[in-house]
Amino acid sequence: MIIHKIPLKSFLMYGNVSSSISVNEIHMTTNKTINTLFSRTDTPIRSYIYLPDKYKLPFRIDMTVKIDAPAMYLIIGNGHIGIGTDGMDNRSITSIAGEEFKPRKSRANNNIIMGEFAQISAIYGRKAMQLIINGESRYYSTKDPYIKSPLLDTKFRDGFEFKLACDKRTSLTLAAFTITEYEDSEPEFMPESTDELPPPCLSAADKPAIEYCTQGLKPELQQAIFDTDKYLLETLKKSMKFKRKIEGGYPCGKITYVSPFGFSYKLNISGHTMTHSMGWIGYNTKREQEKYGGYKKADYSIATLEKLAETSPEFANEIFFRMKECAGCYGGCMHLSHYEYKGEKKISCGGSIHFKMFPSELADARKVIEAINEIAQADTAV
C-alpha cells in the first residue's frame, strides 16, 4: 500500500479556470460553460485542475472539499463522479474506462450541503467501486464496466489521471487530497447503501404548491423565490403575461414561467439546492417555426444588456458573462446564437443566462426581467 498525501501546489490548471493556491487550500472556479452531459464523449469537460502523475488500480481517493452551489466533478481516466448535481441525474457516475453512454439504472445519492466542507471518498477495487460521503455509503457497484474492461491492460496500463472541475461560476475549495494505491491488496468497502432516491423524472400530473417544492431550501432563498413569483405573476401580469407551470414536487421539481413574448424563466429545485436560468424560447418543429416566424419569436438579449448598462455598465457586463456559452453538449445545436457586446463575441446556447442559488441572484434575475419588460412594452407601443 502506498499513501500519497498530495501537496495542493501539485495541481495544475487547464482551460478556462481561475485558481489560487494557499498553504492549506485551493480555490477555483470555471469561467466558461462546461459540457456535463457525459452522453457522447468519455470526458467532455475541458476546464479543470489536474495532477500531472498517474495512479494505478486498485486505489482510493479521499478529499476534503466544498462548493457554494452545484456542482463539482471528480474526473478519473475516461470517467467521472459528479458531486452535488441534480437529484435526478442518472449520469452522476460514468466508468473510468469510458465508453459508457447509457444512463445507469442505479443512481448515486451525491448530495452535499452547499457552503460546508464534505469528506468524499471514491474507492476503485478490482471487483467493486464505491462512493462515500461524510462516512456514508452513497453508491456501491460490483458491475462497473471498468472492472472487466480490456483497456485496463492497454490504455490504462500505466494508471489513471485525476482532475477536478466545477460548473461555471461555482466556487470550489479543496482542503486535502489523498490517493492510496493498494498494489497487490484490495481496499475495504462499507456496507451497501439502502437509500431510496426519487425517480429520474418529473410527474406532469402532480400540481403541488410552490411552497411544497421549495421546502428544502433555506428560508431566505425560499422568500426570494416567493418574491420573484409574486413579481412575475402579479406585478408583470398585464405586461409580460407570465404563465406558471409546476412539474414534480419535492425533493425534485421544476417551476417554469413563460411569457407570450417568447421568453421563459426556469427554476430547477433538488432538495436543498437549486439552479435558475432564463432565455428566449427556441422552436424545434417546422410547425412552430412557421407559427412564430423562425427559430425564435423574439430575442432582446443585446437590447437588454444595453438597457441595463444605462444604470449599471458593470451589471450589464456581468450578465453578459453569465450567458451560457455553447459547450458542444449534443454535438450539433439547433439554437446556436451569435452575440456581440462591447466588442466581445460569444457563441451561446440561445442566449440563456444562468444564475446561482443565492437570494441576491434571484434579485438579479428580476432586474434583468424588468429591463426586458421595458423593452417589450416599448416595442409593443410602436
Short précis:
The protein has 382 residues and is an alpha+beta fold.
Highest CATH level, the class of the largest domain: Mainly Beta
Based on Cα principal axes, name the global outline.
elongated
Radius of gyration: 22 Å
Number of helices, counting only DSSP H or I runs of 4 residues or more = 6
Class of secondary structure makeup? alpha+beta
- Strand percentage lies at 25-35%
Low-pLDDT residue intervals, each spanning 5 or more residues: none
Total number of beta strands: 21
Our count of domains comes out at 2
Which CATH-level-2 architecture of the largest domain?
Answer: Sandwich
Largest sheet: 8 strands, antiparallel
CATH superfamily of the largest domain: Exo-inulinase, domain 1
Question: Helix amount, in percent?
Answer: 10-25%
Overall mean pLDDT = 92
CATH-defined topology of the largest domain: Jelly Rolls
**Straight-line distance between termini:** 75 Å
Write the element-wise H/E pattern from the N-terminal end onward: EEEEEEEEEEEEEEHHEEEEHHHEEEH
Please explain how this structure is put together.
It is a single chain. It contains 6 helices and 21 strands. With about 375 residues, it is of the alpha+beta class. It has 2 domains: about 1-180, Jelly Rolls, CATH 2.60.120.560; about 210-380, no CATH class. The strands form 3 sheets. Strands 1, 3, 4, 6, 10, 11, 12 and 14 form an 8-stranded antiparallel beta sheet that branches. The chain is elongated, with a radius of gyration of 22 Å. The termini are far apart. About 35% of the residues are buried. The model has no long low-confidence stretch (mean pLDDT about 90).
